[in-house]
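Please check this today:
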Amino acid sequence: MSFKFLKISSYYRDFLKDYYTRFPEVKILDYEGQHTQLMCQYFAWSDNYGRLLAHKGIETMEIVANAMPMQKIWAKENGFSSDLSPEEIVCRQIEHFKPNVIYFQDSITFNSAFINRLKSQHPFIRLIIGNICSPFTSSQIEDFKSFDYLTVCSPQFREILSKYGIKCVLIPHAFDKRILEKINIDNYYPESDLLFTGSIIPDEGFHNIRLQILENLVNNNILFDFYGNLPDISLLGLFKRQASYSTAHILDKIGLGNITDSVPLIRKGRGHKTMPKQIHISKELQKIVKPPLFGMEMFKALSKAKIGFNNHGDCAGDYVANMRMFETTGVGSCLLTDMKKDLHHYFNIDYEVVAYSSADECIEKVKWLINHPQQCREIALKGQQRTIKEHNFESRIEIFYDFLKRSLN
């Protein structure tokens, strides 16, 4: 089957800020050079969808819509003004490439108005697919209806969205095996008994349980390395979150959602289902947090950990959902994760990974793993073997490719 495939992503702003700070010289490269360099950071899904579909003879293109130095170079190289907005550059790229299938990994930034505009303007587009694996609001559900399909990372999202008539395809996250070729190059991170890399967003649907368990680890004097972001717990931080929430919901309610869409600080307020409340984070936890790590730097640090801690966002419900499970096992660390009713479909529990059902059980299993280093290492190796064999992007692309063939036929 022959078709042209375009994937459009938006990367975390903190990652892009860190990336361009560490590699300022990339801004002088041409578009292809910048794109290659950025993909070599192995952030999120990197270029796996386009790369692996290309191996099947599909003509593909990957866009990172908010990597502005790279996007502006593309505009300049193709005869357009580099002063175009991010959205308009994406539109020019679509017009230039003329894809039959567009896959939006970011289905929040690109809303129904944008999707419907593409459908009405470009008859060459046969299928527009979105993706969701994070909390969403009722107003965003209306946006999701504009996509022909959504890919989801967990049955939890499929169950919720199907109630609104939204067609979904379940494609779990995966590990990029290419990372193992580079993970030991210039890896100066210290060895760690227990490590967590990730964020704490203590709003509804996010990380309230995760925060409670991390606080419990600190209270039990269990040493661990924590690379990530803590929320601003000041009164000013609370005011900003509440103002963002109020403004976004008022604008959406009176039909001015386009303003919400165009202002990132306001748009962020849509992610709150209820008015944000005051957050408490202990001074002990605040003391140990280190700056967040992304891409290869995260994988390098994680590979030096005997145990990699994981706890899903509250929105995951009873199902496995996040990437951290496969990132941790993929680099060869022992995964300690919260129990989910479908976890056994992915790993043999207490043989390939270790699971806990409560904060107290988490503490108990951390202590056991630290005190039994040989067994900890054996579990880590078996988990890594399972991930490399089954939970890789090559296997996930087969699911996606079969779905595309059925949909296009």
User: Anything to note?
Assistant: The first helix runs from residue 13 to 22. The chain has a mean pLDDT of 90. The chain has three domains: 4-174+392-408, 177-231+279-390, 235-271.
